[in-house]
């Protein structure tokens, strides 16, 4: 059984330790500036993209003029979210299709590492809310683009 | 009907009650994910608990058989979303040992720094979530504030905040960014000298919390070993076993760190408080390792071995275990000499922790079960893979 002394001892102990904790809470309550930050779209006119780090992995962007159509990114992608179609017409290779499904993409960065001509890169964009899932499937080639010739060292033609 | 105290037995003799089957989860805030526990209750006392796992099964082991060795790395992030870098490290070491790949010196240091930072961040959430389940919201917010600094640090390092995918087979993806070393040292100093003390004053030594956690969910030394508990849950029962020291991997043998173990700080050895306290102490030890690694790390050097685009691993099999924040993370890899694994088996710490819930939850109250789940630091995706 709990004696009267223990009973009241417990209560005073609880009050004492809780007071100690509440003092810390109080310290943060009156402290300026507060820890909570507002959503980045309101900080001094900066865009949310400006606040992320240099290596941030956001939406993928493609510079089709640099792309050689080697299909390395498509093959390395673990979830097959990149679809490239390359066709040969009049002795020239053309990029007919370069689609990236941003809804499927898990931003692992394997394609960016593989690309020999740095045509596929990460942008800093990460706010991708939209009304239709189909909008997230980004097509980077609207009309056929001639594929860039690979650098001489890689594969001499 | 077992494991009742004397007082409870006397009560049940007088009032015969009907047993009721109660489903806790799959969407219960204290189950840390989609996890279902089937409770057989007698009033507020628990007679039996049956964990029903498998809601988050994603078939990662099967996916491993369908993608090349390097391409499986992003999937290891998803084994345990709170400590993705440790899972990356475990898988990378497994493939490297089987394929006989050497890792550059600097990459080893970067791996250890990343892994220990992640361990700290994981324990912030582990300890914070336990307190949140018990009704203390403020300490959880304090812990997450520190995790935010960690997120910024790791974003500087590899560009992602949750699923890092930083470690690669044969090294790491990026070298240190400029300013990282200073920021990391500042963070580690802040945690070790300021945050831990403040956190302990705020909640750890609060007598209400101590009374809530002590002598609840006691796991004895023998039971812990018998049920193959690993990680902080094992050490909470007083067993000083840590894979980082006892089956060393990477370069952990170069660092000086202690292994905290439960010693019954306020109650019995192996109660919920001991498991909680081991996590708090491990944060300090991780700080020590990071500081040593940052000071010893060579300034220049390669961070990644040149490997063929499609890696071929010789025929054979291997089992590698590493220490993740939630216990031992084991990868069993079988190769038939091709470009894809023949079989990959993942063994995680949370799965072992699930097995013991049935044993230690008999005869406790439903509210204490919340404390037990929280103290075992279960992450549901890690159980199911």
Summarize the structure.
Chain A has 157 residues and is α+β, with helices and mostly antiparallel strands. In chain A, 24% of the residues lie in helices and 18% in strands. Chain B folds into two domains: 6-52, no CATH class; 60-384, Orthogonal Bundle (Cytochrome-c3 Hydrogenase, chain B), CATH 1.10.645.10.
Structure write-up:
The complex is a heterodimer of chains A (157) and B (385). Chain A has 157 residues and is of the alpha+beta class. Chain A has two domains: 1-36; 52-146, Alpha-Beta Plaits. Chain A contains three helices and six strands; from the N terminus they run H-E-H-E-E-H-E-E-E. Chain A has helices spanning 4-30, 72-76, 110-114, and strands spanning 60-62, 82-89, 92-101, 120-122, 137-139, 145-146. In chain A, strand 2 and strand 3 form a beta hairpin. The radius of gyration of chain A is 28 Å and the shape is elongated. In chain B, the strands form three sheets. Chain B has a three-stranded antiparallel sheet with strand order 1-2-3. In chain B, strands 6-7-8 form a three-stranded antiparallel sheet. Chain B folds into two domains: 6-52, no CATH class; 60-384, Cytochrome-c3 Hydrogenase, chain B. Chain B has helices at residues 6-14, 60-64, 73-77, 84-99, 105-133, 137-158, 180-204, 207-213, 221-226, 232-236, 243-246, 272-296, 349-360, 366-376, 380-384, and strands spanning 19-24, 36-42, 45-52, 167-168, 171-172, 316-324, 327-335, 343-347. In chain B, helix 4 runs antiparallel to helix 5. Chain A binds chain B through residues 10, 13-14, 16-18, 20-21, 24-25, 35, 52-57, 72, 76-78, 106-110, 113-114, 122, and chain B through 67-68, 70-75, 77, 138, 145, 152, 155-160, 163, 165, 173-174, 177, 198, 201-203, 205-208, 211, 309.
């Amino acid at each position: 059984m709990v004696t009267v002394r223990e009973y009241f001892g417990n209560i005073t102990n609880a009050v004492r330790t809780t007071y100690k904790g509440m003092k810390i809470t109080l310290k943060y309550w009156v402290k300026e500036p507060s820890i909570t930050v507002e959503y980045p779209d309101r900080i001094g006119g900066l865009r949310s993209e400006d606040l992320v780090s240099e290596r941030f992995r956001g939406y993928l962007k493609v510079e089709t003029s640099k792309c050689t159509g080697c299909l390395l990114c498509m093959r390395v992608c673990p979830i097959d979210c990149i679809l490239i179609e390359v066709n040969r017409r009049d002795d020239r290779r053309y990029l007919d299709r370069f689609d990236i499904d941003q809804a499927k993409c898990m931003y692992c960065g394997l394609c960016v590492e593989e690309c020999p001509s740095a045509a596929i890169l990460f942008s800093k964009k990460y706010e991708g809310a939209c009304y239709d899932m189909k909008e997230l499937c980004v097509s980077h080639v609207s009309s056929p683009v001639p594929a860039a010739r690979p650098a001489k060292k890689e594969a001499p033609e | 009907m077992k494991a009742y105290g004397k007082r409870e037995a006397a009560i049940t003799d007088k009032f015969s009650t009907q047993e009721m089957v109660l489903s806790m989860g799959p969407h219960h805030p204290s189950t840390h994910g989609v996890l279902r526990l089937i409770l057989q209750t007698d009033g507020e006392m628990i007679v039996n608990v049956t964990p029903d796992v498998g809601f988050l099964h994603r078939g990662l082991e099967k996916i491993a058989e369908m993608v090349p060795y390097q391409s499986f790395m992003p999937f290891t992030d998803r084994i345990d979303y709170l400590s993705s870098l440790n899972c990356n490290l475990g898988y990378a070491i497994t493939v490297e040992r089987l394929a006989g790949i050497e890792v550059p010196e600097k990459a080893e240091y970067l791996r250890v720094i990343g892994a220990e930072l992640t361990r700290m961040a994981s324990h912030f959430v582990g300890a914070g979530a336990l307190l949140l389940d018990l009704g203390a919201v403020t300490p959880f917010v304090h812990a997450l504030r520190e995790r935010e600094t960690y997120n910024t640090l790791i974003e500087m390092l590899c560009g992602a905040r949750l699923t890092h995918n930083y470690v690669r087979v044969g090294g790491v993806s990026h070298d240190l960014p400029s300013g990282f070393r200073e920021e990391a040292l500042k963070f580690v100093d802040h945690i070790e000298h300021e945050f831990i003390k403040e956190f302990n004053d705020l909640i750890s030594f609060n007598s209400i919390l101590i009374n809530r956690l002590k002598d609840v969910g006691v796991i004895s030394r023998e039971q812990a070993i018998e049920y193959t508990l690993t990680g902080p849950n094992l050490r909470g029962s007083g067993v000083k076993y840590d894979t980082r020291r006892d089956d060393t991997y990477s370069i952990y043998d170069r660092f000086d760190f202690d292994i905290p173990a439960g010693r019954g700080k306020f109650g019995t050895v192996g109660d919920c408080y001991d498991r909680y306290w081991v996590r708090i102490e491990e944060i300090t030890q991780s700080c020590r390792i990071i500081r040593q690694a940052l000071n010893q790390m060579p300034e220049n050097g390669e961070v990644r071995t040149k490997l063929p685009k499609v890696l071929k691993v010789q025929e054979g099999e291997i089992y590698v275990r590493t220490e993740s924040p939630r216990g031992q993370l084991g990868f069993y890899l079988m190769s038939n000499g091709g470009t894809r694994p023949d079989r990959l088996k993942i063994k995680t710490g949370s799965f072992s922790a699930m097995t013991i819930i049935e044993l230690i939850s008999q005869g406790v109250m439903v509210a204490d079960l919340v404390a037990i789940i929280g103290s075992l630091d279960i992450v549901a995706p890690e159980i199911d893979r």
